[in-house]
Specification:
Layout lengths: L7 E6 L14 H8 L6 E2 L4 E2 L5 E6 L7 H17 L3 E6 L4 H12 L4 E5 L19 H9 L4 E6 L4 H10 L1 E4 L5 H7 L4 E7 L21 H11 L3 E8 L10 H20 L10
Helix pairs in contact: 1-8, 2-3, 3-4, 7-8
The structure holds manganese (II) ion (MN) (2 copies).
One manganese (II) ion binds next to loops.
């Protein structure tokens, strides 16, 4: 759709400067865009089609690689502009640090913001390699913005002991999968929610192309069910992060990321009735 008519605005945040192990996530949005022509717009799972909704692709931000703070400011400005226009921001990372920029904008717009976080990793270190801004600290920085008991983590299966101890006092964490998600969704009814999906929450068998793979992840179908549960909430903004195309020679992870994005868009737009459809415009 054209921007003016769009209910949702996709943009890429091609940034991976703090990736700790294997970089490459900066190429995710570009590769996903190129490969997107290979997948159907129709979802048999939800009996919905991307063409039912007005979605605008804003392309990729031009981010400075040597300067995470500057990159985050540019991401924040982009998300703020989309929110101001009453549209749903849908960001494609990049490494997970990019989420902080987008959450900053959402937290300004929605002071009561809550965050649902799908990931293999807790991402709540205070610093990583001496740095405050890292994909391993991103949810700690988000916690500083939204406060205690506002972050709900699922699928977590990796982190330092200190992270798990600290997390017990400050946020809600479901290890290994999505148990408890239905109760969390019930408790967040009517509240603004930022949904951030670090795609390494998936098992490396279905999502091998990522910088820090962790065995023991969830299946695509399990993630899809979790996304559909969350879509009933008031989603203020959302993102998917950590696809790394150079680590995905078989293209499996890219195809999976595209399918996650398709299902995420259809699930949210169908539930929020943001159907500024092409027919109407
Ligand atoms: Mn992460
Ligand atoms: Mn992760």
């Amino acid at each position: 759709a054209e921007y003016a008519d769009a209910a949702a605005v996709i943009f890429g945040a091609p940034f991976d400067a703090t990736t700790s192990y294997r970089p490459g996530a900066r190429g995710a949005s570009r590769t996903m865009r190129a490969e997107s022509y290979s997948i159907e717009t129709y979802s048999p799972y939800q009996d919905g089609d991307l063409t039912d909704y007005a979605i605008y692709d804003g392309g990729d931000l031009d981010l400075t690689f040597g300067n995470p703070a500057r990159a985050l400011s540019l991401i924040e400005a982009q998300t703020a502009a989309i929110l101001t226009d009453g549209k749903l921001p849908v960001m494609i990372g990049g490494e997970h640090l990019v989420t902080l920029g987008s959450v900053r904008a959402a937290a300004v717009c929605y002071p009561d913001l809550h965050i649902i976080h799908f990931d293999a990793h807790a991402d709540i270190r205070d610093t990583y390699a001496g740095e405050k801004l890292s994909h391993a600290t991103v949810m700690r920085r988000c916690w500083e913005l939204v406060g205690d008991q506002r972050i709900f983590q699922f699928g977590i299966r990796s982190g330092e002991r200190e992270e798990f101890i600290w997390g017990k006092d400050h946020l809600w964490c479901s290890r290994f999968g999505f148990s408890g998600l239905d109760d969390v969704v019930r408790s967040l009814a009517g509240k603004p929610v930022y949904l951030t999906i670090d795609l390494d929450v998936l098992d490396p068998a279905v999502f091998p192309g990522t910088g820090t793979p962790e065995a023991g992840g969830v299946s695509f179908m399990t993630l899809l069910e979790a996304i559909r549960l969350c879509a009933g909430l008031q989603i203020a903004a959302c993102d998917i992060t950590e696809l790394s195309p150079p680590l995905d020679p078989g293209g499996i992870a890219t195809a999976t990321a595209l399918k996650v994005l398709r299902e995420l868009l259809i699930a949210i737009l169908a539930r929020q009735n943001r159907s500024t459809t092409r027919e109407q415009t």
